[in-house]
């Protein structure tokens, strides 16, 4: 049972990584691509580490996986935010992909 649960979380994390990589390649501007990259970090890696934690059981390796997860959980959003602010301050404007509404007459 625990083995099946671990494989489900590892495969789910891998799917999030694939979806995020697809977003990095296909999204229109830097800020949207950065969102795709942050999905890979938080959801993809988080689920993979959770599945690996189920596989290892209560060992020293689980403690190391928890430390990796905590490090990624705090540094990834902080780094993404700092990168977005630096890009915005350097003059890189987001591309508006949604057209404004027109009034119906």
Describe the structure.
It is a single chain. By secondary structure, the protein is mostly helical. The chain starts with a helix and ends in a 16-residue tail after the last helix. The mean pLDDT is 88. It has three helices and no strands. Helix 2 (30-56) runs antiparallel to helix 3 (60-89). It has one domain (2-79).
SSE topology:
Elements: H1 2-26, H2 30-56, H3 60-89
Helix pairs in contact: 1-2, 2-3
Distance between the ends: 61 Å
- Give the count of structural domains: 1
N-to-C order of helices and strands: HHH
What is the count of helical runs?
3
Multimeric status of the protein: single chain
Principal-axis shape: elongated
Count all strands and give the number. Answer: 0
Based on secondary structure, the structural category is mainly alpha
Sheet of most strands:
none
Strand content: under 5%
Mean pLDDT: 88
| Low-pLDDT stretches | none
> If you compute it from the alpha carbons, what radius of gyration comes out, rounded to the nearest whole angstrom?
18 Å
């Amino acid at each position: 049972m625990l083995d099946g649960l671990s494989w489900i979380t590892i495969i789910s994390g891998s799917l999030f990584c694939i979806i995020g990589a697809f977003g990095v390649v296909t999204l229109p501007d830097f800020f949207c691509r950065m969102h795709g990259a942050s999905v890979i970090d938080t959801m993809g890696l988080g689920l993979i580490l959770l599945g690996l934690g189920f596989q290892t059981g209560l060992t020293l390796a689980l403690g190391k996986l928890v430390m990796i997860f905590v490090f990624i959980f705090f540094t990834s959003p902080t780094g993404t935010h700092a990168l977005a602010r630096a890009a915005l301050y350097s003059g890189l404007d987001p591309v508006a992909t949604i057209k404004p509404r027109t009034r119906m007459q």
